[in-house]
Model the fold of this input.
Amino acid sequence: AMLMVVALTIRIALLFTIGKSKCDDDASNFNHAEPYDCGCQAISSQIRSRIVNGEEAIPNSWP
Done:
């Protein structure tokens, strides 16, 4: 029973930490030269749009 409690606790902890940005912790308390958002691209992607008839994609929208 104790092993099941430990396994469940680990799974719950992983559930809340998966996808968390590395910049959310206090370890990055230094002055950045330019403001930025961790994990966010500069130009938002247009997921639902398609390239049709040779229309160009937005530059730098996909990594």
